[in-house]
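Severity: low
Component: inverse-folding endpoint
Summary: output formatting inconsistent between runs
Steps to reproduce: submit the following C-alpha coordinates with default settings.
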Protein backbone atom coordinates (compact mmCIF):
# COMPACT_ATOMS: atom_id res chain seq x y z
CA UNK A 1 0.00 0.00 0.00
CA UNK A 2 2.90 2.35 0.78
CA UNK A 3 4.39 1.82 -2.68
CA UNK A 4 1.03 2.55 -4.30
CA UNK A 5 0.90 5.85 -2.40
CA UNK A 6 4.39 6.72 -3.64
CA UNK A 7 3.41 5.73 -7.20
CA UNK A 8 0.27 7.89 -7.01
CA UNK A 9 2.31 10.90 -5.87
CA UNK A 10 4.83 10.32 -8.66
CA UNK A 11 1.99 10.10 -11.20
CA UNK A 12 0.55 13.36 -9.85
CA UNK A 13 3.93 15.13 -10.08
CA UNK A 14 4.48 13.80 -13.62
CA UNK A 15 1.10 14.99 -14.89
CA UNK A 16 1.54 18.32 -13.08
CA UNK A 17 4.91 18.67 -14.82
CA UNK A 18 3.24 18.10 -18.18
CA UNK A 19 0.65 20.75 -17.32
CA UNK A 20 3.42 23.17 -16.30
CA UNK A 21 5.14 22.51 -19.62
CA UNK A 22 1.92 23.19 -21.52
CA UNK A 23 1.47 26.41 -19.53
CA UNK A 24 5.03 27.46 -20.40
CA UNK A 25 4.57 26.59 -24.11
CA UNK A 26 1.33 28.60 -24.20
CA UNK A 27 3.16 31.52 -22.52
CA UNK A 28 0.73 31.68 -19.64
CA UNK A 29 -2.41 31.34 -21.76
CA UNK A 30 -3.52 28.35 -19.68
CA UNK A 31 -4.71 29.28 -16.18
CA UNK A 32 -2.55 28.58 -13.09
CA UNK A 33 -5.11 26.21 -11.57
CA UNK A 34 -4.50 23.69 -14.34
CA UNK A 35 -1.27 22.49 -12.64
CA UNK A 36 -2.81 21.30 -9.32
CA UNK A 37 -5.90 20.06 -11.17
CA UNK A 38 -3.67 17.97 -13.45
CA UNK A 39 -1.78 16.61 -10.42
CA UNK A 40 -5.05 15.54 -8.79
CA UNK A 41 -6.30 14.03 -12.02
CA UNK A 42 -3.03 12.11 -12.43
CA UNK A 43 -3.23 10.68 -8.89
CA UNK A 44 -6.91 9.78 -9.25
CA UNK A 45 -6.29 8.13 -12.63
CA UNK A 46 -3.46 6.06 -11.19
CA UNK A 47 -5.61 4.99 -8.23
CA UNK A 48 -8.44 3.89 -10.51
CA UNK A 49 -6.06 2.01 -12.83
CA UNK A 50 -4.43 0.32 -9.86
CA UNK A 51 -7.76 -0.83 -8.42
CA UNK A 52 -9.09 -2.22 -11.68
CA UNK A 53 -5.85 -3.95 -12.69
CA UNK A 54 -5.00 -5.45 -9.27
CA UNK A 55 -6.86 -8.71 -9.87
CA UNK A 56 -5.32 -9.40 -13.28
CA UNK A 57 -1.83 -8.39 -12.11
CA UNK A 58 -2.10 -10.58 -9.01
CA UNK A 59 -3.44 -13.64 -10.85
CA UNK A 60 -0.69 -13.27 -13.47
CA UNK A 61 1.93 -13.70 -10.72
CA UNK A 62 0.47 -17.05 -9.62
CA UNK A 63 2.31 -20.14 -10.88
CA UNK A 64 0.81 -22.50 -13.44
CA UNK A 65 -1.67 -24.81 -11.73
CA UNK A 66 -3.25 -22.16 -9.51
CA UNK A 67 -6.83 -21.78 -10.76
CA UNK A 68 -9.11 -18.94 -9.63
CA UNK A 69 -12.42 -20.35 -8.42
CA UNK A 70 -14.12 -17.29 -6.92
CA UNK A 71 -13.71 -13.53 -6.78
CA UNK A 72 -15.48 -10.80 -4.87
CA UNK A 73 -16.63 -7.78 -6.83
CA UNK A 74 -17.42 -4.70 -4.81
CA UNK A 75 -19.09 -1.34 -5.26
CA UNK A 76 -18.52 1.52 -2.85
CA UNK A 77 -19.85 5.00 -2.28
CA UNK A 78 -16.27 6.11 -1.65
CA UNK A 79 -15.32 4.87 -5.12
CA UNK A 80 -18.09 6.22 -7.37
CA UNK A 81 -16.45 4.73 -10.49
CA UNK A 82 -17.14 1.28 -9.05
CA UNK A 83 -20.84 1.77 -9.81
CA UNK A 84 -19.93 1.82 -13.50
CA UNK A 85 -17.93 -1.40 -13.18
CA UNK A 86 -17.39 -3.18 -9.88
CA UNK A 87 -13.87 -3.68 -8.53
CA UNK A 88 -12.47 -7.12 -7.62
CA UNK A 89 -11.12 -6.87 -4.06
CA UNK A 90 -10.36 -10.51 -3.21
CA UNK A 91 -10.33 -13.97 -4.68
CA UNK A 92 -9.94 -17.65 -3.84
CA UNK A 93 -7.86 -20.01 -5.97
CA UNK A 94 -7.10 -23.72 -5.87
CA UNK A 95 -3.45 -24.76 -6.14
CA UNK A 96 -3.80 -27.96 -8.15
CA UNK A 97 -0.06 -28.64 -7.77
CA UNK A 98 -0.65 -29.54 -4.11
CA UNK A 99 -3.34 -32.21 -4.64
CA UNK A 100 -2.91 -35.14 -2.26
CA UNK A 101 -4.96 -38.35 -2.32
CA UNK A 102 -4.74 -41.43 -0.14
CA UNK A 103 -5.12 -44.78 -1.97
CA UNK A 104 -7.64 -45.97 0.65
CA UNK A 105 -9.87 -42.88 0.16
CA UNK A 106 -9.75 -41.95 -3.54
CA UNK A 107 -12.84 -39.67 -3.29
CA UNK A 108 -11.12 -37.39 -0.79
CA UNK A 109 -8.51 -34.85 -1.79
CA UNK A 110 -6.37 -32.45 0.24
CA UNK A 111 -5.43 -29.26 -1.57
CA UNK A 112 -4.14 -25.78 -0.80
CA UNK A 113 -6.49 -22.85 -1.24
CA UNK A 114 -4.95 -19.47 -2.01
CA UNK A 115 -6.83 -16.61 -0.33
CA UNK A 116 -5.86 -13.20 -1.69
CA UNK A 117 -7.28 -9.80 -0.83
CA UNK A 118 -6.25 -6.30 -1.84
CA UNK A 119 -3.79 -4.70 0.62
CA UNK A 120 -3.47 -7.93 2.60
CA UNK A 121 -1.02 -10.79 2.58
CA UNK A 122 -1.94 -13.83 0.55
CA UNK A 123 -2.78 -16.83 2.74
CA UNK A 124 -2.63 -20.55 1.99
CA UNK A 125 -5.03 -22.92 3.72
CA UNK A 126 -5.10 -26.73 3.54
CA UNK A 127 -8.60 -28.01 2.81
CA UNK A 128 -9.99 -31.53 2.52
CA UNK A 129 -12.67 -32.08 -0.12
CA UNK A 130 -14.93 -35.12 -0.20
CA UNK A 131 -15.70 -35.33 -3.92
CA UNK A 132 -18.35 -38.06 -3.57
CA UNK A 133 -20.29 -36.41 -0.73
CA UNK A 134 -19.88 -32.81 -1.97
CA UNK A 135 -18.43 -31.37 1.23
CA UNK A 136 -15.25 -29.82 2.58
CA UNK A 137 -13.32 -29.51 5.82
CA UNK A 138 -10.66 -26.97 6.73
CA UNK A 139 -7.56 -28.63 8.17
CA UNK A 140 -6.53 -25.82 10.48
CA UNK A 141 -7.51 -26.92 13.99
CA UNK A 142 -5.40 -28.63 16.62
CA UNK A 143 -7.94 -31.46 16.83
CA UNK A 144 -7.53 -32.49 13.18
CA UNK A 145 -5.58 -35.71 12.82
CA UNK A 146 -4.76 -37.99 9.89
CA UNK A 147 -4.76 -41.73 10.63
CA UNK A 148 -2.54 -44.32 8.92
CA UNK A 149 -5.45 -45.44 6.73
CA UNK A 150 -5.96 -41.84 5.50
CA UNK A 151 -9.05 -41.12 7.60
CA UNK A 152 -9.35 -37.57 8.91
CA UNK A 153 -10.68 -37.09 12.44
CA UNK A 154 -11.56 -33.90 14.28
CA UNK A 155 -12.44 -31.92 11.15
CA UNK A 156 -15.71 -30.03 10.81
CA UNK A 157 -17.40 -30.78 7.50
CA UNK A 158 -19.32 -28.18 5.51
CA UNK A 159 -21.82 -29.27 2.85
CA UNK A 160 -21.28 -27.55 -0.49
CA UNK A 161 -23.89 -26.66 -3.06
CA UNK A 162 -24.01 -28.70 -6.27
CA UNK A 163 -21.67 -27.23 -8.86
CA UNK A 164 -19.41 -25.56 -6.26
CA UNK A 165 -16.43 -24.26 -8.23
CA UNK A 166 -13.85 -24.99 -5.50
CA UNK A 167 -15.03 -28.61 -5.27
CA UNK A 168 -14.98 -29.06 -9.04
CA UNK A 169 -11.46 -27.71 -9.45
CA UNK A 170 -10.06 -29.62 -6.46
CA UNK A 171 -11.58 -32.93 -7.52
CA UNK A 172 -10.49 -32.63 -11.15
CA UNK A 173 -7.16 -31.01 -10.33
CA UNK A 174 -4.92 -34.04 -9.94
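Observed output (run 2 of 3):
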Amino acid sequence: MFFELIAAVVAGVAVAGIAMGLRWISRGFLPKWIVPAAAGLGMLSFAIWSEYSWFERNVATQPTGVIVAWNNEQRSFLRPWSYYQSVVTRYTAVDTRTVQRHPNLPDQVIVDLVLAARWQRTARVKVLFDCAAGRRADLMGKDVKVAEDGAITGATWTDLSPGDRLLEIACKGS
